[in-house]
Amino acid sequence: MSEIEQRRQDVSAGLAGLKADALLVTSAANVRYLSGFDGSNGLILLTPTETHFFTDPRYEIAAKQNITGKVHVVKGPLIAAAAKIIQRKRIKRIGFESGWTQYDAYQRLRDALPRSLSLVPIGRVIEERRMIKSAAEIDIIRRSVNLNSEAYSRVLKRIRPGVRELDIAAEIEFQMKVLGAEKPAFDTIVAAGPRAALPHAHPGSYRLAGNELLLMDMGASLQGYCSDMTRTVHLGKPPKKIRDLYNAVLEAQLAGIAAVRPGVTAGKVDAATRNVLKKHKLDKAFVHSTGHGLGLEIHEPPRLGKKDPTKLAVGMAITIEPGVYIEGLAGIRIEDTVLVTQNGCEVLTPSSKEFIVL
């Protein structure tokens, strides 16, 4: 049995506990997790004994060659085709991804099924299973992280005053693809000078000056798995205030990493970073959570936020990324991808966190 087939078997075994006779999977990431399908239009109907995969004619050849289970190639809405199978199998309680399903999709499903059939919301059961990565998944994430870091190393050599944020973002994404990435894991963030105070700034036509900060948040997607890293560098000699800010964020990031271990709640890791910044009177300038899980999606559970009760476990891949953002001055964020291990954690990101001056 392949790893993907084992995942399906495990999910199927839990259907009774969800009070469902079958499960309809529509989230693209969950469809890929349970089938390996990486196209844009796929749906899975999972019963205790069968897997029905639905797609359209664009993906017929690939689906029949690569997906185990019963493949249905459909001309028209996939939900309507799945509804016919549900009726034919006389399924009475069908689970659906309530955290993902759009209302119109839900309504189409409801309209296609007998009123006697119950639709059972299952929340994010599959996402919770995805939090723990297998050895094979960890290997891909590790390679994605290394690819991302190598792209960053190459881009550093091309940064100079006068270059636009857009140019740097384009070079980052070009280098990722040269190194084998499918695509960026998210829209690359490049923000210079005062614009770095925007945590999710979109790179624009702003040209780098000779004496300012540059924040780069970048991630690669490799075989569907994401990496994530942020580094902040400085063009020209940084003033003491900027150095002090950088050192405070670095201290907070290291404290967060030190707090990561099995059994610790996500909230306690967040508190570890926040407490350091509070000591430096920078806690109010930290406007987001300490980190998040990643895998087939760039943002997955757990969320490392205030008082989050989720307990970390071996095999979770997470980010640790505190930052401070001061309007009109600068923004500094330092982020690594981290793996929870038996003895604590392993920082997967190899890129130096020394304050680089270009």
Break the fold down into its secondary structure elements and pairings.
Blueprint: H1 3-13, E1 22-25, H2 28-35, E2 42-46, E3 51-55, H3 60-66, E4 70-73, H4 78-88, E5 93-96, H5 103-112, E6 118-121, H6 125-130, H7 135-156, H8 165-178, E7 183-184, E8 189-192, E9 212-218, E10 220-222, E11 225-226, E12 229-235, H9 240-259, H10 266-279, E13 291-293, E14 300-304, E15 317-320, E16 323-326, E17 330-333, E18 336-341, E19 344-347
Parallel strand pairs: 1-5, 3-4, 5-6
Antiparallel strand pairs: 1-2, 2-3, 7-10, 8-9, 9-12, 10-11, 13-14, 15-18, 16-17, 18-19
Q: Summed up, what is this model?
A:
The chain is α+β, with helices and mostly antiparallel strands and 358 residues long. Helices cover 34% and strands 23% of the residues.
What does this structure look like?
The structure is a single chain. With 358 residues, this protein is of the alpha+beta class. It folds into 2 domains: 3-130, Creatinase/prolidase N-terminal domain (Creatine Amidinohydrolase, Chain A, domain 1); 135-347, Creatine Amidinohydrolase (Alpha-Beta Complex). 34% of the residues lie in helices and 23% in strands. The protein has 10 helices and 19 strands. The strands form 6 sheets. It has a 6-stranded mixed β-sheet with strand order 4-3-2-1-5-6, sandwiched between helices. It has a 3-stranded antiparallel β-sheet with strand order 7-10-11. Strands 8-9-12 form a 3-stranded antiparallel β-sheet, covered by helices on one side. A hairpin with a 2-residue loop joins strand 18 (336-341) and strand 19. Helix 4 runs parallel beside helix 5, helix 7 packs across helix 8 (165-178) and helix 9 runs antiparallel to helix 10 (266-279). The termini are far apart. The mean pLDDT is 96.
